[in-house]
Amino acid sequence: MKTNRLRNLIFLALCCDLGLFSKRLIAPAANVITDFLRIPGGIGTSFSLMFLIVAAELVPRFGCGALMGAVQSILALSLGMTGSMGALAPIGYIVPGIIIDCIFYISRKTGTHNSGSMVLANMLSAASAGLTANLIVFHLRGPVLALYVTVALLSGALCGCLAVSLSRRLRPILRAESVKFIKKPAEENVQTATAVIPQPKA
After folding, report:
1. If we measure between CA atoms, which residue out of 65, 83, 79, 74 comes closest to residue 15?
2. φ, ψ dihedrals at 155, nearest 5°
3. Would you say residue 193 lies in a domain?
4. Residue 190 has pLDDT above 50, yes or no
């Protein structure tokens, strides 16, 4: 059990790192689109949140999203990757994590959890990140704000579909590793018991 828990924590940490640094990797391509639309962003955030969606799907524990958002905010502050939000950047990381947790919790509690829940979580968490940034920094209004949120929702839907595909590919691998960790201690216990029990003489 402890080994399985450690494996989950390592996987969550990996998704946090991938989510944080992938945003910087696709920023040049995303900026081409957002600069053309005259909006501050939204596409890179949706891609970044995709990794949190995958982690929350494969490690079904309430609070995973908020925890990963908090870890990302600490990393962003320590590495100077806060962007235009500055010291208030943790809010922009934690709020989408809470949205992911809430959507997954409600869908699992009501028995309606499926791939659509992942897409919806990616869409709404991306929109919440955009609205949080707008409230703190950008102060957009009217049609520009509507376009900003729409881009966040559309890119969130696309990245949500990618998250569904990625989680389906990773799930068998994580399950195989879990079975391996469970079987190994069991085999060791059997061998130990066999060695302790005296064998009958012929």
Report:
1. 65
2. -65, -35
3. no
4. no
* Cα(80)–Cα(86) distance, integer angstroms: 9
69 domain-assigned: yes
Q: Give me the number of domains the chain comprises.
A: 1
CA distance 188 to 154: 51
Tens of pLDDT, residue by residue over 78-120, are 888 877 787 888 898 999 999 999 999 999 999 998 999 999 9
Say if 178 falls within a structural domain: no
What is the amino acid identity at position 42? G
Residue 129 counted as domain residue: yes
73 and 90 in contact (C-beta within 8 Å)?
Answer: yes
Q: How distant, in Å, are the alpha carbons of 119, 179, 184 from that of 68? A: 18, 25, 30
Residues in the chain: 202
Count Cβ atoms within 10 A of the Cβ of residue 158 and give its class: 0-12 exposed, 13-18 middle, 19 or more buried. Answer: middle
The residue whose two tokens read 């989408």 is 96
Q: What is the pLDDT of residue 117?
A: 93
Full residue range of the structural domain in which residue 10 is found: 2-25+34-171
User: H helices within 38-88, ranges in order?
Assistant: 43-58, 64-79
Predicted TM-score of the model (pTM): 0.82
